[in-house]
Amino acid sequence: MMNRRQTLSLLGAAALVAPLAVAAPGSAQTASAQTGPIRVGEINSYTGLPAFTIPYRQGWQLAVEEVNARGGLLGGRKLEVISRDDAGKPDDAVRVAQELLSNEKVELLAGTYFSHIGLAVADFAARNKIPFVAAEPLTDAITWSKGNRYTFRLRPSTYMQASMLVEEAAKLPAKRWATVAPNYEYGQSAVTWFKQLLKEKRPDVEFVAEQWPAQGKLEAGPTVQALAASKPDAIFNVTFGADLAKLVREGEGRGLFKNRSVVSLLTGEPEYLDPMKDEAPEGWIVTGYPQEQIDTPEHKAFRDAYTARFKEAPRQGSVVGYATLTAIAAAVEKAGSTDPEKLVEALSGLSISSPFGPVVFRASDHQATMGAYVGTTTVKDGRGVMKDWRYADGAAYLPGDEAVRALRPAN
Questions:
Q1: For 35, 201, 238, 321, which has the most beta carbons within 10 A of its beta carbon?
Q2: Residue 339 neighbours by CB under 8 Å, 6+ apart
């Protein structure tokens, strides 16, 4: 899914300004550093997953433009993003993180999509004592078992989204379950939590099959055949992108989903529904983003601004990118400084307004309370959409502070 490294910059030549030289306190260069742009180093899998990351980039571009149009931060300093492609590889992500810190003199890190890459950058952030706002990676390890003082995560985790889906799955008559998930940190974490949480609510269920295709390399025929052979009553799916489309097409052709319930993580997001058009699945229970149906004031304002700026409707990635840079700007203002320790203190417990409503970065584990929409899929006007949805507030799907202390190492 990822090949070459690509440099992406916001505001044209402004993002290519030479790094500021280290200067003695009180010098003209120090004064310039205190009034120059506030630089954020952003890392993501742009070449590997453009369906999500391009709307995500447009989201953070919109947030940066809005901040700067209001006069910037800390009395007039512009917010600037210097972006790099991680090629879908943890080693590349760490290498460009070092380059952003050493050469570009960024004051925070942000971004990443894949969970294993997010974990690699989180470790880098801890070792180098630089704040990192992980936008998308969903593994719980990033805020729990491998959590650290410098890393914060925006999106609802695999635990949170599995909990949302389990509420619906537990109502089904299904007792025999099969799972299919990409064989890396995100998929493994999602399946682990779904199994554990469903068994807690329904001790009578059993899991009769697991399929673990390599991410981006799903062999649809054998996978569907193996799932069908286990004769499950229901299926929990964690695949996304091109793998999801192949699974849906092959599964429909072979009757895998006939008279079976499917519960599916992320499938209701436009990034993954739109490419399937009228082949989108019917009746799957999903987390997603029914953007055209959400009429809250916060979301309408965001959707209108995004559509006016980019001449297209927002996607889930758009919301994530926008909220990530909104949070960073708010943290800088709250800290009154770009000092890393002050920024960490500001991010702990930070409250922001997002297109989904209020979001808080919990001080106990640095997990944000952003939620997700839960509903079922259907086909309308030749494309897949969500129906019968509800917003699941992330705060309701997180363990309390005492439980977190047992999950997370001390800073």
A1: 321
A2: none
